[in-house]
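Board notes (copied after class):
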Amino acid sequence: TLLKPFEIPAFISAYLMIGIHREGLYYTRGSNNSLIQEIKRVAEESGVNIFTNCEVKEIFVSNSFARGVRLASDRVIHADRIVSNTTAINTFTRLIERRHLSDNLRHKIDVIENAYSFLYIYLKVEKNILRNLTSPNALYISRLSDDFGESGLIRLFVPSMLDNSLVREKDFHNLIVSTPEDAQKWKTHKYPEKMKKSSVERVLNMLENIIPGIKEGARIVDVRSPIDIEKITGREDGTFGKKMDFRQGLYNRGGNRVGLENLYLAGDSTFPGQGISMAAYSGRLCAELIIKEAGKKLPF
C-alpha cells in the first residue's frame, strides 16, 4: 500500500489481492498472543528455556564465528547457534560490532531502505456505527501523493468481526486504525505528544467522512506513535523491516545465513518478508537449516 505501482513485485500484489478479495486474511483466534503461547508450550515440551524481559546488548563474535550473547545485565550466554529475530539493521549495527562485518555485508546494510512506520489508534466502537463495514479489513485512500506519510491512507482492522471473544460487551467492536507516518518527523518535533493529539484528531476527522458517527460513538483505548513503537519493539524508527520493493523484496531481502558462522536471521528483514505468516516461515527455514547442519533428518 505504500509503494508506487511500478515498485510492487507482481507476486506480492497477486498474493495480497487474492488474500483480501477472494479468500480473506486469517488471524489467530484469541489474538496473536494465543499463537505465541502455543509456540512457548511446544518449545518448553522440547526442553527449551525461555527468558523474557532480558534485553540483548551484544552478539559477540570471534574469528567470524558468533559465539553467544551478552544481556543488559552483563550475563553471558554461550551458544552453538544464534538466531536473531530483530531487523537486519539492528542486528548488524547495534548487536554486532562493525569490524566483524565484511565490506560486502557492510554495504548491504548501509543501503537498506526501511518501510514507513505507522500511527495506531485503538478504538472501542458501537457495532451499529460499523454496520456498513462488510469486511474486517478495509483500506481507504482519500488522495494520493508522492509522500505517503502525508497522504490520506487509512487502514481499518476489526478483529472482533473474526473473533467475538475479544470483546466483553457484545454491542461493541474493537477497531484498529493505522496510517503511515515518517518516524523522523516525530523525532524532530518539539512536542511529540501534541503532535500525537493533533494526528489522532486529523485521522478521526477523516474517518468521520467515511463512517459517520464514529467520533461520537467511539472511545479511544490507546494510541501508539512511531516513537512508541520503537520503544516497545526496539526497532529503529518503529519500522517493520525493509521496504518491500523490487530492489529488496522477496529473494533480494537476503537469506537466513549472512556472513558469519553460527548466525541465522529470522523475521521481516529476511526472506520471504513482512507479515505473521511470512516472518514465521523464515523462522521455520532457520530451524530446517540448523537441523540439516547438525546432520539430522527433518521431523516433517
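Comment from the instructor: The chain is about 35% helix and 20% strand. Strands lie at 56-62, 65-71, 76-78, 82-84, 117-126, 137-141, 153-157, 172-181, 218-224, 263-265.
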